[in-house]
Design a protein that fits this description.
binds zinc ion; two-stranded parallel sheet; alpha/beta; 10 strands; 13% strand
């Protein structure tokens, strides 16, 4: 539900074409994607937003070469103090931004014609800053026109609830909101509050170091009866722009080869595993269905 082919953290002011060689990126990332496909995974949700490494043409080529469906997104990432927000967005209205994002949904991301499958946002810990509130309002307007789900990198539980309230004021169903990085909020009562509204909570960053933490979170969700509102991911990055051959890539298969077997050992059965990895992503990506 949340991985990255490529990330460029230079910031919105430094983003420019030609900062990396697409051929090199493909040669680094394709073997990892093929491995993922060989483990039975069909769909890869690429969460790199515009101004942070979104490259639809690269994704298409990797999709064709790997056999994976790869989904890209529209929206802006407003966390990290606004470093990844383009200058024009500060003076634009929420309506201006929604027109742009809904335009990408309708006509494709210029100049590629490739359409986004979801809205990706990022907000810092709450309360929401003015610019972050504007991004959330723009996402609400975009959702109402397109039906796309809103996946938001969210600083903490306060910011999660603030976003849900703001979306509600626009008439957006909480089921169209994914609280990305919910695992970072240590006060679990926020998880329960969010799922009670009908929102999705996403536990990202599954790796060898976080197996126990993530098994614990999923066990908690199972005990409390909200497994059907939980999404999971590795949040792995295939290629870091600016690093030698993209730097370290953990690959995308840990989830399937290591984590899910551990999860089953902890008592999460085959059907519940399927809910987490197949049914929930499908329902989350098609809100209203
Ligand atoms: Zn991420």
């Amino acid at each position: 539900m949340h991985e990255h082919v490529l990330v460029d953290i230079v910031g919105a002011n430094g983003i420019a074409p030609g900062r990396y060689d697409g051929g090199v990126v493909r040669s680094v990332v394709l073997p990892h994607l093929k491995q993922l496909r060989s483990q039975g995974c069909r769909t890869f949700v690429d969460c790199s937003p515009a101004y942070l490494g979104r490259d639809p043409e690269l994704l298409v080529r990797l999709s064709q070469a790997s056999g994976l469906n790869i989904l890209t997104n529209t929206g802006f990432y407003g966390a990290a103090g606004g470093k990844y927000i383009p200058e024009f967005a500060f003076s634009a209205t929420a309506e201006d931004l929604a027109a742009r994002w809904a335009g990408e949904f309708k006509a494709g991301i210029p100049p590629t014609g490739i359409r986004p499958a979801f809205i990706k946002l990022g907000v810092d810990p709450g309360p929401l800053s003015r610019i972050n509130s504007k991004l959330v309002s723009a996402a609400a307007l975009t959702h109402l026109r397109t039906g796309m789900v809103i996946a938001s990198h969210t600083g903490d539980g306060v910011a999660a609830m603030a976003q849900l309230n703001l979306l509600k004021s626009h008439g957006v169903s909480p089921a169209a909101f994914i609280w990305v990085h919910a695992q970072d909020e240590k006060d679990r009562s926020f998880h329960r509050k969010a799922v009670e509204t009908g929102a999705w909570i996403e536990f990202d960053g599954i790796s060898s170091e976080t197996v126990d933490q993530n098994v614990g979170l999923i066990q908690e969700a199972k005990r409390a009866g909200y497994l059907r509102r939980v999404l999971i991911s590795q949040d792995a990055v295939g290629y870091h722009v600016g690093e030698e051959r993209g730097g370290y890539c953990p690959g995308y298969t840990f989830m399937f080869s290591e984590f899910l077997p551990q999860l089953r050992k902890s008592g999460v059965d085959e059907n519940e595993t399927r809910i987490l990895t197949v049914e929930n992503p499908r329902r989350a990506l098609t809100p209203g269905n």
